[in-house]
Amino acid sequence: xxxxxxxxxxxxxxxxxxxxxxxxxxxxxxxxxxxxxxxxxxxxxxxxxxxxxxxxxxxxxxxxxxxxxxxxxxxxxxxxxxxxxxxxxxxxxxxxxxxxxxxxxxxxxxxxxxxxxxxxxxxxxxxxxxxxxxxxxxxxxxxxxxxxxxxxxxxxxxxxxxxxxxxxxxxxxxxxxxxxxxxxxxxxxxxxxxxxxxxxxxxxxxxxxxxxxxxxxxxxxxxxxxxxxxxxxxxxxxxxxxxxxxxxxxxxxxxxxxxxxxxxxxxxxxxxxxxxxxxxxxxxxxxxxxxxxxxxxxxxxxxxxxxxxxxxxxxxxxxxxxxxxxxxxxxxxxxxxxxxxxxxxxx
Length: 347
Ligand code: GLV
Ligand code: MG
Prior knowledge:
It is a single chain. The protein has helices spanning 4-7, 38-42, 44-50, 67-80, 100-111, 126-142, 158-162, 164-168, 181-188, 224-235, 252-265, 278-284, 289-301, 318-335, 339-345; strands at 29-33, 53-57, 87-91, 117-120, 150-155, 174-179, 203-205, 217-219, 240-243, 269-272, 309-311, 314-316. It has 347 residues and is α/β, with parallel strands linked by helices. An 8-stranded parallel beta barrel has the order 1-2-3-4-5-6-9-10, surrounded by 6 helices. The longest helix has 18 residues, at 318-335. Residues 60, 121, 154, 156, 180, 182-183 line the site of magnesium ion.
């Protein structure tokens, strides 16, 4: 374990100072762009304007023969587009793949000053983060990058879940984590072929009821345990937690339900792989207007955040003041980007 002073020292001579607190950012939608496809690159500017984060995907779903084209395509997009308030991320190939080293060196060399976050797949433990951390510091120093490029880990192996706390604590460069339900299911030997979402056989059977011929069956959320562990690891270290991909593009309702479970548990965003998931993610990860208006009333009723008051018959105290503040802070952030929601929230 490093001493606190060393933890916050740059890892290479000439690399920027590590950050001590994450910059505020609205990250409801991490939209995946396949950068080897010309049509997608041509629309990247328009897409960036609709989402909170645009991510150039270089890893899974990119065919082996298109890996280099995806990398150069991402660099082309990163140079050409003015991202404004939208974050620019990339998902690089796995650390043991033949592409990882060139992904990192070419991208940081070409567009390191525009890149906010590198998403690292299949992270198993803090050693993976230390390696990427050191490499980024060397590349930042070589290319005179002004601010540290952050690391986002995908939680998608059984060992990664076991080590989730150590991963969250591995570096001041850590931005957060996303659940990767497809790789995680495979790694754990779960018996599902779906990318996220529930499974019709995972649930509990109600007790027998003599008035009913059939016993009720209640489907459960397969990802509840992992999302909860990820949220605790991230939030206790000042990081952000995200739901990852939802693979059934036709089933918007199920996507929305899965995203909402993650939001209510503490996640701030999700991946969007298809354009029709963008509005779903924005809706789910923006607090609901009624909830915001009630939270504002709590804050107004308790200006110094202490004591106890009753609002509409419900007890409020220091703890509910903090809950209300989480919601109002998020609503304020959403309002900076979304005039319609700002009006509904009364800002
Ligand atoms: C995402 O990368 C996943 O494996 O679900
Ligand atoms: Mg994966």
